[in-house]
């Protein structure tokens, strides 16, 4: 079987690993997207701060008299703004006059490589621009013109290293810390929940194993909060109760069969022994032997029934269907059954269908089924000593099937026995000691009916009579 080759894992590991994987992938994705977004907004913020620094400085140095106001406090003020705006120290700011000469810079000495470029800053336009110096260093350069009363007084340049603008903001660290804790929490929750779920399932599995070993006294405590688990445990407990009942029934039924088979053997042995020991002689001995022969035949028939049933149950016997007119067939079977014994106490009546339908069926099996039903009806009637015993055979026709109803006006089947009559070897209490039999008639008949593509079931039963219905498929 393919299920044997599947690799199995404990529920706990299976779920926790699965869940963890999904959780991690999901959180990682969220983390990457969010950190990307965070970084972008951090860059935006930094650029805005740079602009503010440049604009503030331009305003500060635009002197009212039309000249640049570069006093001693300037460097300190710029440094303060820089700190306030969170721009760090790695920044270079300089101011040019209208002739493009650098008149101020902070820090005082700009890096040499930078200076080469910024001595010709005129090509830089107002606003941001990226500047690449050498293979590794990239800078942002920001230009802000200094104006006072519509006069151009020069420009402020801010040069900021690219790597500084892109540094991992603290928010990203925090984000990953949060996501990490979330993953740990999620994993913990699923671990605990799964462990909680696994326990009752393990209990059911262990109890089921006990049952496999033949111990039917398993009862699980259905005191769980989850509906599904509750249902599982309840169903399991019901199942064990049912198994116990079936086991008890089987023992009882087996005792019944043994008894049925033992009785004739004991009778035969007694009769034969009496003749051999010459307890009886002459014509009486002949009579004893005739009785013994009769018992032998009965025993033989029972054993034959048993063998036939087993053969059929093992699937060794097949049904052979032929097309036959149903009305005529059933009428003939009923007539034959009636003639089968001289002193029949019952009448049998067949009410045929208005149009005799042709139906594909196994005549022999149909005969066996109907004989079983007729015999049961007759025996039920005899048990209560009813003299006007009547068996009625009627038909119902639907689109797909034909139902044959066999009704008697016997004593009916007690409610407690109704669901057991199709059980192998089951015999009603009223019949057990009175009529010999193995209790195989109904189960065998049902099996045959199903092999024919139909079914046999108890339709109704009451103190006024019993109806069994045999269904046959019209087209099969
Ligand atoms: N028509 C019926 N009326 C009353 N009881 C019936 C009828 N048919 C069957 N039964 C009950 O069903 C039981 C099982 O029937 P069956 O399987 O034919 O076994 P058996 O006839 O050997 O007892 C019978 O023992 C009897 O108690
Ligand atoms: Mg029977």
TrEMBL record:
Ranges of residues in domain Histidine kinase: 256-476
CDD domains hit by this protein: HAMP, HATPase, HisKA
Residues annotated as domain HAMP: 195-248
Major subcellular site: membrane
InterPro entries: HAMP_dom, HATPase_C_sf, HATPase_dom, His_kinase_dom, HisK_dim/P_dom, HisK_dim/P_sf, Sensor_HK_Regulatory, Sig_transdc_His_kin-like_C
GO cellular component, one term: membrane
Pfam family, one: HATPase_c
Protein name per UniProt: histidine kinase
Organism: Capillibacterium thermochitinicola
């Amino acid at each position: 079987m393919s299920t044997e080759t599947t690799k199995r894992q404990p529920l706990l590991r299976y779920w926790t690993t699965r869940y963890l994987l999904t959780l991690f992938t999901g959180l990682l994705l969220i983390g990457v997207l969010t950190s990307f977004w965070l970084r972008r907004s951090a860059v935006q913020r930094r650029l805005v701060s740079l602009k503010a620094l440049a604009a503030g400085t331009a305003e500060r140095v635009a002197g009212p008299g039309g000249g640049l106001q570069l006093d001693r406090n300037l460097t300190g003020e710029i440094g303060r703004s820089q700190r306030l705006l969170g721009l760090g120290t790695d920044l270079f700011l300089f101011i040019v006059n209208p002739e493009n000469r650098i008149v101020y810079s902070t820090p005082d000495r700009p890096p040499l490589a930078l200076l080469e470029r910024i001595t010709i800053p005129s090509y830089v336009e107002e606003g941001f621009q990226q500047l690449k110096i050498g293979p590794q260093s990239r800078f942002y350069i920001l230009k802000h013109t200094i104006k006072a009363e519509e006069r151009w007084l020069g420009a402020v340049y801010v040069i900021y290293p690219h790597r500084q603008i892109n540094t991992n903001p603290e928010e990203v660290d925090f984000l990953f810390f949060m996501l990490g804790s979330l993953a740990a929490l999620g994993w913990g929750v699923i671990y605990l929940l799964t462990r909680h779920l696994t326990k009752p399932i393990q209990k059911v599995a262990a109890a089921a194993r006990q049952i496999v070993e033949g111990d039917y006294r398993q009862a699980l405590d259905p005191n769980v909060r989850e509906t599904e688990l509750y249902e599982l445990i309840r169903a399991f407990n019901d199942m064990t109760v049912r198994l116990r009942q079936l086991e008890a029934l089987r023992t009882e039924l087996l005792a019944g069969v043994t008894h049925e088979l033992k009785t004739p053997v004991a009778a035969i042995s007694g009769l034969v022994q009496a003749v051999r020991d010459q307890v009886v002689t002459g014509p009486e001995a002949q009579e004893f032997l005739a009785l013994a022969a009769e018992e032998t035949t009965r025993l033989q028939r029972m054993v034959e029934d048993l063998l036939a049933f087993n053969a059929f149950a093992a699937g060794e016997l097949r049904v052979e269907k032929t097309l036959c007119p149903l009305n005529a067939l059933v009428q003939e079977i009923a007539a034959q059954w009636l003639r089968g014994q001289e002193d029949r106490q019952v009448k049998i009546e067949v009410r045929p269908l208005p149009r005799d339908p042709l139906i594909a069926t196994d005549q022999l099996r149909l005969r066996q089924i109907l004989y079983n039903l007729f015999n049961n009806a007759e025996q039920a009637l005899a048990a209560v000593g009813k003299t006007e015993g009547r068996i009625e055979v009627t038909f119902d026709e639907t689109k797909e099937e034909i139902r044959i109803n066999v009704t008697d006006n016997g004593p009916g089947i007690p409610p407690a026995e109704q669901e057991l009559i199709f059980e192998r070897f089951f015999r009603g209490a009223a019949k057990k000691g009175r009529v010999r039999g193995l209790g195989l008639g109904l189960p065998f008949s049902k099996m045959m009916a199903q092999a024919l593509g139909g079914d046999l079931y108890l339709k109704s039963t009451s103190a006024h009579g019993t109806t069994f219905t045999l269904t046959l498929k019209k087209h099969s």
